[in-house]
Write a structure and sequence with these properties.
- Pathway: Amine and polyamine biosynthesis; carnitine biosynthesis.
- By secondary structure, the chain is α/β, with parallel strands linked by helices.
- It contains 15 helices and 20 strands.
- A 7-stranded mixed sheet has the order 14-15-16-13-12-17-18, sandwiched between helices. Strands 9-8-7-10-11-19 form a 6-stranded mixed sheet, sandwiched between helices. It has a 3-stranded antiparallel sheet with strand order 5-6-20.
- A hairpin with a 2-residue loop joins strand 1 and strand 2.
- Helix 2 runs antiparallel to helix 4 and helix 7 packs parallel to helix 8.
- Bound molecules: nicotinamide-adenine-dinucleotide and N,N,N-trimethyl-4-oxobutan-1-aminium.
- Nicotinamide-adenine-dinucleotide binds next to helix 7 and helix 8.
């Protein structure tokens, strides 16, 4: 597959173990190849009837799946992980074509995805309750049980990885899942659905419905849906929480951020610059946990800024399927315009563009209608500027000087978000002191945006609640049943 040649002709819904056209629908959507601006797929948004059919299919599979032992579920997840690993390059290629991220990054995303399945396969066999001795030989025990049919709703920036992060723990715990990807990136999750079936999952265990807000609402409101796990923006997260509250459904919310990255003057400069690049420019800056507020201690401000600008200017932008490309196009034209709008506003508010921030037109004529821009570093930033306060979700780094540890902590925490934070310093005590004060669900010391699946990921404050990855996520996809056993006679109060 090469840029400009891929189109999808198969159905994009998945139900009962196969691709299907939706039974009903409301409106048609087009999915694009951001590198060229070409339409690669046209599909119908699933209506209430199709959502119900997907739920019924998942319910039927759940009846079989919940009876399987953890080890049996583990084997199927391991087989799915093996297939993903084997088909890594093909899946990454589809991801790159539909999302625009470089193939280099997409391959890493797919690696994190199969690792996630392997990790939860490892935990599936060891899920257990506890036994508690009570007086007189009586006893109690707890059983960790699945919730039922879980819904996953995803954002467009990590389509395959988000579906894996949600489905792996859900299935490991014995649930079935219906996944709705973003209408911008409907394609790659179908490969995951087919892989689960190939690995031996019962038909209906992992279904896919396509659509936007209306389809998502049908899912959240369905009476047979037990849980909703959502990744997306804060405004949509609020709606999902509201809808789910009607059915007292537990929700996991992985929302946006405006994370701080704090660079102290005693840092290893080369690593700090690399860290700032990792914190801002992966996936064209369209990353929820990006450290976009880069606080730099004043003594090293000039040296750091000079180096970070030099490295940013070296980023190779272009055809995302080429091995040496490190930045592809943004997701779509309206989003590109929105990001450029933030930069215009930043200039008006007094920020200085130190590099990039304008459109990029690649030399290759087939890329002329793609959504490219040059990654941007903004200097002369102040805490009250829009570019420093709001999530831009594009390749825009704001550099802010600071003097003292106490001051930077106050400023770093002065946000309604709390997804991630980072600190670069050689002083181990300072690193832990600072981390202890940061109001963020994920804190990085001397690195940024790495994501080992063994570690929980999720936010504080308006960045959401619940976690993905790590052992703790088992608790978000299961419930505890307590069984109290009397070994003597009933001592009645009456
Ligand atoms: N914390 C995380 O792990 C994480 C990861 C990736 C992206 N994000 C966040 O996602 C945002 C970007 O993604 P986006 O633009 O796709 O977000 P979005 O909120 O617009 O959409 C996310 C998903 O919700 C669906 N949706 C929209 N309205 C809905 C409704 N009323 N009911 C049910 N579903 C609805 C969309 O179709 C899509 O599938 C950013 O804010 C980013 O920070 C967070
Ligand atoms: C893999 N990363 C870079 C940690 C991103 C996680 C998902 C956020 O958008």
């Amino acid at each position: 597959m090469s840029t400009g040649s891929f189109t999808v002709s198969q159905a994009l819904n998945y139900r009962g173990g196969k691709r299907v056209q939706p039974a009903d629908g409301s409106g048609t959507e087009e999915a694009y190849e951001p590198a060229t601006g070409r339409v690669i797929a046209t599909f119908q948004c699933s209506g209430e009837k199709e959502v119900d059919l997907a739920v019924q299919s998942a319910k039927a599979a759940f009846k079989i799946w919940r009876k399987k032992s953890g080890m049996e579920r583990s084997r199927i997840l391991l087989e799915a992980a093996r297939i993903i690993r084997e088909r890594r390059d093909e899946i990454a290629t589809v991801e790159t074509i539909n999302n625009g991220k470089s193939i280099f990054e997409a391959q890493l995303d797919i690696d994190i995805s199969w690792q996630c399945l392997e990790y939860y396969a490892g935990l599936a066999g060891s899920m257990a309750g506890e036994h508690v001795q009570l007086p007189g030989g009586s006893f109690g025990y707890t059983i960790r049980e699945p919730l039922g049919v879980c819904v996953g709703i995803g954002a467009w920036n990590y389509p395959f990885q988000i579906a894996s992060w949600k489905s792996a723990p859900a299935l490991a715990c014995g649930n079935a899942m219906i996944f709705k990807p973003s209408p911008f990136t409907p394609v790659s999750v179908l490969l995951l659905a087919e892989i689960y079936t190939e690995a031996g999952a019962p038909p209906g265990l992992f279904n896919v419905v396509q659509g936007g807000a209306a389809t998502g609402q049908f899912l959240c409101q369905h009476r047979d849906v037990a849980k909703v796990s959502f990744t997306g923006s804060v405004p949509t997260g609020k709606k999902i929480m509201e809808l789910s509250s009607q059915g007292i459904k537990p929700v996991t919310l992985e929302l946006g951020g405006k994370s701080p990255l704090i660079i102290f003057s005693d840092c290893d400069m080369e690593n700090a610059v690399k860290g700032a690049m990792m914190a801002n420019f992966l996936t064209q800056g369209e990353v929820c946990c990006n450290g976009t507020r880069v606080f730099v201690q004043r003594e090293i401000l000039d040296k750091f800024t000079e180096e970070v600008v030099k490295q940013t200017q070296k980023i190779k932008i272009g055809d995302p399927l080429l091995e040496d490309t490190r930045m592809g196009p943004l997701i779509n034209r309206p989003h590109l315009q929105r990001v450029l709008g933030f930069i215009e506003q930043a200039k008006k508010q007094g920020a200085k563009v130190l590099c990039g921030g304008d459109l990029y037109v690649p030399g290759d004529p087939k890329l002329k209608d793609g959504y490219y821009m040059k990654p941007c570093v903004l200097g002369n930033c102040k805490d009250d500027m829009t570019c420093v306060k709001e999530e831009i979700f594009g390749p825009v780094m704001s550099v802010l000087p600071f003097d003292t540890e106490a001051e930077v902590l106050e400023r770093a925490n002065d946000t309604t978000f709390g997804l991630a934070a980072g600190v670069f310093t050689r002083d181990i005590q300072r690193a832990h002191r600072v981390v202890a004060e940061l109001q963020a669900g994920v804190c990085y010391v001397n690195n940024y945006n790495v994501s080992p699946v063994e570690l929980p990921f999720g936010g504080y404050k308006m960045s959401g609640f619940g976690r993905e990855n790590g052992r703790v996520t088992i608790e978000y996809y299961s419930q505890l049943k307590t069984v109290c056993v009397e070994m003597g006679d009933v001592e009645s109060v009456f």
